[in-house]
């Protein structure tokens, strides 16, 4: 075999790829499903925390800040490992899927809370005062005046952060989730050939290149003129 | 409560495991000191290419950045560590981590620094060139310092991400903090070493996280 044939046999082996395609396709579906669940729960809880924080209840805010700092400082893989291998000792066994989902949701919650909060505080005080003095209630002001303005500046950093955390679904492979990476790794050890891993990498590109391009577009679309 | 302390904050077990946890922490710091500069070097190269005068160079650089932002770092690492040997290229755990971080974090730093370079007004370059500075001098003494200052919050936040990311090296059996903690947990059947590792990561990164959120709030308030 020539060098290229050798390379093709190892990395682009169609026979092996075809054999393990169904497994990796299942992994693809699982990755998408996991990612969607993380994004929905993470952003919703992040926004909720930021709104609670805006009421300015001191001890509660300290708690929120601590939780947010905690999940911004801990590596996601450490949280996943802790939840997966640690919680059974507390009588709470989580599946690999649940542990990965919960960990990345907490991480996204922390990052998005910080971004939402920065967005809320960036709205000028005068906006609050003007709305309240025209007779809007606190919640009406929040809903119709502050949140719409805050969203605009939060969208670009939020998009990028969400994309980066969603890619963390690959960490699930460490605790036995058969998402794309997990499925391709087990296919690789069964077939003793790295082509499934190639296929997995391609699957990630198919999934994330459009997402990254979308993030780039959002960034330029919402960019503030300097 | 006692059960909880036994399972998660068992001081006996933590002190037994402490020698290997310290070794792990040391390896993590070593890794960070290696991969942050590697990523920065990759980032500066990519940022310069993404702001090059030639259109096709800019397009290629943007494509490269998007490619490595789309592939999860763990996938890249597993590929380098477990895939490359099939091509007769065995780079080992440290080699795989170095290459993987160069490619992945280089792309992220590149994107941050590109935004920084774009934020420096053209007049700065024109003025520097017309006072007789060469192109390289202009870049090194006029454009890059301002670019770096403008995107400092993003650079710090990216660096925190990179340090956190070193934990994935445990997957390729590089004996850093998380790997050692898991070893200790395997031997003792107790989660306390992992809790101890988590505390170490938190203490290491908390000051940077605090700094980051202050800088971010300031940056956003400036725009509002």
Give a verbal description of the structure.
- The complex is a heterodimer of chains A (226) and B (224).
- By secondary structure, chain A is mainly α.
- Chain A has helices spanning 3-11, 14-54, 58-73, 76-86, 96-122, 125-133, 138-166, 180-191, 195-221.
- In chain A, helix 5 crosses helix 7 (138-166).
- The longest helix of chain A has 41 residues, at 14-54.
- Chain A starts with a helix and ends in a 5-residue tail after the last helix.
- Chain B is mostly helical and 224 residues long.
- Chain B has a single domain (2-223), classed as MetI-like (MetI-like fold, Orthogonal Bundle).
- Chain B is globular, with a radius of gyration of 21 Å.
- The N and C termini of chain B lie far apart (47 Å).
- At the A-B interface, helix 1, helix 3, helix 4, helix 5 and helix 7 of A face helix 1, helix 3, helix 4, helix 8 and helix 9 of B.
- Chain A: Belongs to the binding-protein-dependent transport system permease family. HisMQ subfamily.
Please give the largest β-sheet of chain B: none
CATH fold-level name of chain B: MetI-like fold
Q: What's the story with the biggest beta sheet of chain A?
A: none
The value of Rg of chain A in angstroms is: 22 Å
- Number of domains as seen in the coordinates of chain B: 1
Shape of chain B: globular
Spans of chain B of at least 5 consecutive residues whose pLDDT stays below 50 are none
According to CATH, what is the class of the domain at 29-182 in chain A?
Mainly Alpha
Q: Proportion of β residues of chain B?
A: under 5%
| Integer-rounded radius of gyration of chain B | 21 Å
Tally of individual helices of chain B: 10
Strand segment tally of chain A:
0
Cα distance spanning the termini of chain B: 47 Å
Based on the coordinates given, report the CATH architecture of the domain at 29-182 in chain A. Answer: Orthogonal Bundle
């Amino acid at each position: 075999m020539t060098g290229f044939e050798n390379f093709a046999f190892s990395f682009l082996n169609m026979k092996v790829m075809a054999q393990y395609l169904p497994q990796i396709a299942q992994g693809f579906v699982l990755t998408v499903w996991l990612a969607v669940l993380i994004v929905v729960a993470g952003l919703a809880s992040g926004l909720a925390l930021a709104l609670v924080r805006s009421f300015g209840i001191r001890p509660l805010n300290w708690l929120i800040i601590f939780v947010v700092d905690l999940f911004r400082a801990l590596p996601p893989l450490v949280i996943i490992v802790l939840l997966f291998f640690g919680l059974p000792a507390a009588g709470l066994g989580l599946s690999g899927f649940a542990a990965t989902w919960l960990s990345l949701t907490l991480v996204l919650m922390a990052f998005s809370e910080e971004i939402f909060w920065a967005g809320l505080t960036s709205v000028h005080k005068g906006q609050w005062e003007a709305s309240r003095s025209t007779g809007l209630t606190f919640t009406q002001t929040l809903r119709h005046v502050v949140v719409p303005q805050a969203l605009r500046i939060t969208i670009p950093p939020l998009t990028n952060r969400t994309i980066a955390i969603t890619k963390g679904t690959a960490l699930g492979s460490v605790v036995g989730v058969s998402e794309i990476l997990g499925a391709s790794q087990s296919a690789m050890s069964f077939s003793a050939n790295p082509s499934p891993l190639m296929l997995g990498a391609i699957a990630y590109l198919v999934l994330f290149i459009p997402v990254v391009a979308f993030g780039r577009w959002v960034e330029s679309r919402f960019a503030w003129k300097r | 409560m006692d059960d909880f302390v036994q399972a998660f904050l068992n001081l006996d077990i933590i002190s037994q495991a402490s020698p290997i946890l310290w070794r792990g922490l040391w390896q993590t710091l070593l890794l960070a000191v290696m991969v942050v500069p590697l990523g920065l070097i990759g980032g500066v190269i990519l940022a310069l290419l993404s702001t090059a005068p030639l259109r096709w160079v800019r397009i290629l650089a943007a494509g490269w950045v998007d490619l490595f932002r789309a592939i999860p770092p763990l996938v890249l690492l597993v590929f380098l560590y477990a895939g490359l040997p099939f091509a007769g290229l065995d780079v080992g755990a440290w080699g795989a981590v170095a290459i993987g971080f160069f490619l992945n974090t280089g792309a992220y730093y590149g994107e941050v620094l590109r935004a920084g370079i774009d934020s420096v007004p053209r007049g700065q370059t024109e003025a520097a060139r017309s006072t007789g500075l060469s192109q390289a001098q202009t870049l090194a003494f006029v454009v890059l310092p301002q670019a770096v200052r403008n995107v400092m919050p993003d650079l710090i936040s990216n660096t925190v991400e990179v340090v956190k990311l070193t934990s994935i090296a445990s997957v390729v059996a590089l004996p850093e903090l998380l790997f050692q903690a898991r070893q200790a947990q395997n031997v003792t059947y107790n989660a306390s070493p992992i809790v101890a590792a988590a505390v170490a990561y938190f203490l290491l990164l908390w000051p940077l996280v605090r700094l980051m959120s202050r800088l971010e709030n300031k940056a956003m308030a400036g725009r509002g």
